[in-house]
Amino acid sequence: MSLIRQNKESYGPEFEKHLFEQYKLYVEMADRISARRMLANSFFLGIHTALVTAFAVLQKEEVLQATLLGLAPFAAVLLLCFVWWRVVHSYRQLNSGKFQVIHALEQMLPVAPYDEEWVVLGAGKNRRKYLPLTHIENWVPVCFGILYLLLAVALCCKG
Question: What is the rounded CA–CA span in Å between residue 153 and residue 155?
């Protein structure tokens, strides 16, 4: 990774200070991405919780029919589950890239806490030490999708 655009000699006496300030800013930005990710998950979770409840009530009240038109909302929410799954996947990729840069920046600093933390956690390879959150996050939209499919099947079996 080629992070350094100017060497210390050509940059000047503020090199270390500016390097550390950029590192702090970059870590803060990585943290903000994680906060946005949680906000996105909360949004989708709230929407789907309301939708599952609405579909269950509509099905119980026999408002939904086992017709193409009656099943169309299920296709729409399955698409929404896919979008949620892709958003989670995208945030995972973005965070992975950010932490690779953070690890590279730490190679130029006196200590490397994020790099060492990743070593202590077994680099996410040992689920007993650490199960990355995105591995769990990826299953939530899939579970909602399965729930919608079960509701659609129940509607078809009822009709």
Answer: 5
